[in-house]
Amino acid sequence: MPTFTRSDALRGAEFAHADLKGARFVGADLSGVVMRGVDLLGADIESPWLFDDDGSLLVNGVDVVPLIDAELDRRFPGRAERRAADPDGLRSAWAALERTWAATLERVAAMPAGTVEESVAGEWSFAQTLRHLVLATDVWLGRAVLEVDQPFHPLGLAGHGAEEDGLDTSVLTTEVPSYAAVLAARADRVAMVRAFLAGVSPEELDTVRRNPWDPAYAETTRSCLHVILGEEWEHHRYAVRDLDAIEAAARDDRGEGS
């Protein structure tokens, strides 16, 4: 199976009557792609940027982004609050998120040993997802809002290219920590956000901040908090998707079917 990596060679290319059945696109830029007369049956698309303010995805002439957004809000009660603009709304949004994660943590605790370290189709394990959310809090609250020079918990997990994007994450451990240690780090960062929101004022939400990945771009305290809330809901969705897959595979192994 050929592999195409980061390159401009495929920009603007035309695939006429090409058989791409079963192809996998990871971290690929497909913005502006035009598909005509294509067979998309069984296609599976994950796009965390789908709900950007100016985002759209046309299927047979219909922008499906609002439909997908509404359906995810229905599936995940509290998700619709992630764009709250005032202190009370943000506090309510975070409380809803905490309740959601608490239920998922209880679910995981009742699953077989080793579940938290299991990867589905090469995605982050449940424990790795929690570690990444620790880092997201450190980046967008610790660095951007609180302006701490070195805000990173050692157990945070960065995505690819963190150092290249302007943040020194050398303090992050390369060892695999215990799940108990991950839970402790995660609980600490959840409490950090809760404590900040408890005292935030409307004026502070409007305070201009520097984007932690690119200081040339301006953010506000509010927009930084929106990034945290967005990260939380997206990664929760990924986590429960993979937990469902793990449970389904276990049922198949036992011959129980769906």
Automatic annotation (TrEMBL):
<dbReference type="Pfam" id="PF00805">
    <property type="entry name" value="Pentapeptide"/>
</dbReference>
<dbReference type="InterPro" id="IPR024775">
    <property type="entry name" value="DinB-like"/>
</dbReference>
<protein>
    <submittedName>
        <fullName>DinB family protein</fullName>
    </submittedName>
</protein>
<dbReference type="InterPro" id="IPR034660">
    <property type="entry name" value="DinB/YfiT-like"/>
</dbReference>
<dbReference type="Pfam" id="PF12867">
    <property type="entry name" value="DinB_2"/>
</dbReference>
<feature type="domain" description="DinB-like">
    <location>
        <begin position="96"/>
        <end position="238"/>
    </location>
</feature>
<dbReference type="InterPro" id="IPR001646">
    <property type="entry name" value="5peptide_repeat"/>
</dbReference>
